[in-house]
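Q: Sequence in, structure out?
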Amino acid sequence: MIKNLIKSFRVFSFFFTAIYEVYLDGIEWIRTTSDNPKNKTNISTKWHVDNVGNRLKCFVCVVGDGTQPTIVVPTEKPVPSFLKWLQITFIESLRWIGFNSNFKIKNQEVLYHKSGTINIFDTQLLHRGDYEKGNQERLILELEFSKKEKHNLTNGPIGTTKTNSFLCNLNLIELNDFKRFIDYDRLVKIDDNYFKYEKN
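A: Exactly. Output:
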């Protein structure tokens, strides 16, 4: 799993840094179980955007059988038109007023999370988690990437927070395929071998 993750960094590192100029915001574990009654009422199962502009999420599935996917609606434009924004706002507002908004949308794509797979999507896209019908536990290592300059411009769920801050070994920071993602302003030295990547 670690070897596959490092390989994925090699594949995507140039794309992320050269095209999007992004840095790693944080790392977080996401665990969902098939027998959790909250799955059916979880707000993440309804159509939404994260309202932080373009931000990439990378889902590394450690445990999963594909029955708890993420569904996204792709678009050709990184910034939606005004009419598209109105459509997204209307669809997203349904979850805030209690309507069931997990209906199918034209052109939606399903990202299946099976053990060993990696899925990357922009949370600016309309998306939802479809894990209310899962057959087994799903365990995902989530990595978030965004431009650090925008963190002071929004109060949304973006940047490095208490939930996605992490401790890392010096050897990881020195990896050429990893260090280009690191915002060194967020590193706090713990001792000679460990650093904490914390709120920026």
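The domain at 2-158 is CATH 2.60.120 (Jelly Rolls).
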